[in-house]
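Input record (one chain):
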Amino acid sequence: MERRRNRAYGAGVSSPARATNDVIDVAARATEPAQLRQSLVEPLRRLMGVGPLFLASADPVTWLLTGGSNADVSPEATRRFLAHEYGVPDLVKFTDVAAAKVPMRSLFDAAGKDPSASSRWREIIEPRGWGDELRVALRDRAGVWGFLCLHRAEGERGFSPEDLAALGTVLPELTAAFRRTAALAAARTGASGPGVILLRDDLTLVATSGSAAELLDELGEPGRDGDLPMPVAALASRLLGERSPQRLTMRTRRGRWVTLHASLLDGPEPAGIAVVVEAPTPTLILPVFAATSGLTPRETDVVAALLRGESTRLTARRLEVSEHTLQTQIRTVFGKTGVHSRAELVARLLPH
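The corresponding structure, as predicted from the sequence alone:
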């Protein structure tokens, strides 16, 4: 264990305790999802002694990836991982760790020390000379906020129980930070408009129309040109895997609510993929807003009633509570969502 730590940090450069504190400090300071992910790359590499790694934000309702940052993972490798994730049955998928009692597992452990049982290992990981893969879901009671995918740079040694324990010490702070930055992004307002993105089956961009070109920029990572934005790539990859229409509602990095609808184009030849980008209805926004704000099911019902413009008396009767109790619930909703009035709350849920 100590040999691994020394190799990961470099002689006298850092320590496990220092690396743990660095991860927690970065998680506490971040205010933007992309900033959080990118700032965590090096502290996580030092903490876990890993090489290539991938950090993704996720939609808390559908678990689709809404943004990603990485180290030593090429765009080509990212496309292959996404296509495999949404189109090929395998061990330790992101959905598996998101639903597991313990939301982290290594590929070597799941494969019984024989990683060749995994097609992901045979086709993507081993050809690149990487080692064991550890996948982690960042989740709480409100939803799944992101995923980590960590790789050994060498193939001879898997992740140990001590490694999982080290990551477990910072998992609550990481999850809280991913949720907090998602909520801060959801608190910003903006406008959204219709547009169409056309893709080939290999996820290369063919054309855009309407406001889609601008939205592609907003959905991508700041300062990165040419790569298909993670939410579009993830949605299209799931579409190709499941062969059925897919939908994702999210905030762009500039604060606009958008809904992406992905479907296969019909034709005598494989015609590719169409992703329609449009302003969502409040009905689509509400589940994401409720999850990022930590609203209970009853509090979500209260917000839905406010969106419909119901009177306090009608809502109290329908929810079978007193008007006094309802007013208390409304104040709790205000506190969780950071607003001070019904009008301000409703404005948060309307695309502008």
